[in-house]
Amino acid sequence: MQVPKRHLPIVGLLGLVLIAAAGGGIYYYGYLHPPCTNCSVPSHRLYFMTATIVEAGGFQIVNGAYLNQTDAPSFNATSGPNLSGVKHQNYTASGTTINAIVGDKVTLYIFGVNSTDPAQVLQLQAHGFSMTPYVASGVIPLGKWYSVTFIVNQAGTFPYFCTITCSAKHYLMVGNMVVSSG
Length: 182
Ligand SMILES: [Cu+2]
What we know:
Blueprint: H1 8-14, E1 17-22, E2 25-30, E3 44-51, E4 59-67, E5 74-76, E6 80-82, E7 88-91, E8 97-101, E9 105-112, E10 126-131, E11 135-141, E12 145-151, E13 156-161, E14 174-180
Parallel strand pairs: 3-9, 8-14
Antiparallel strand pairs: 1-2, 3-4, 4-7, 5-6, 9-12, 10-11, 13-14
């Protein structure tokens, strides 16, 4: 296999490169950070979520990412997490199930959506968040962000739910974290 010279600087730069010859062509693939799409080693996972009344969607996972640096992103309740300059790898996450493996550090960022749906309880200030045994009682203010970080240490399914009566279907404002042994 002949590697064209023009590829060599890229090979050296990225460090981890797969070169495969197929059909007479040459393909390479490189990445700056370890690939963790099917991580079997514990890592720091970030989940970005929204919370609104069930009639308008309930809890929803918007996206997920592996953090590829030690420090967590800066965060405040008004602007949420700041990922600019933060080494991370996005992955597609949706629905309501938070996935993790034993040993993972998990950070949730949840934005409280103030619904215009008349089903929302009048004067509602916030949704709640509880997930035994990791989160006792979190508060997700409407229009602001809530964040919590914990380390998962056992496999299983851990339900989470809203703790503040927010609509007639409040009791359905639930989801699960599913932790596998890795
Ligand atoms: Cu709620």
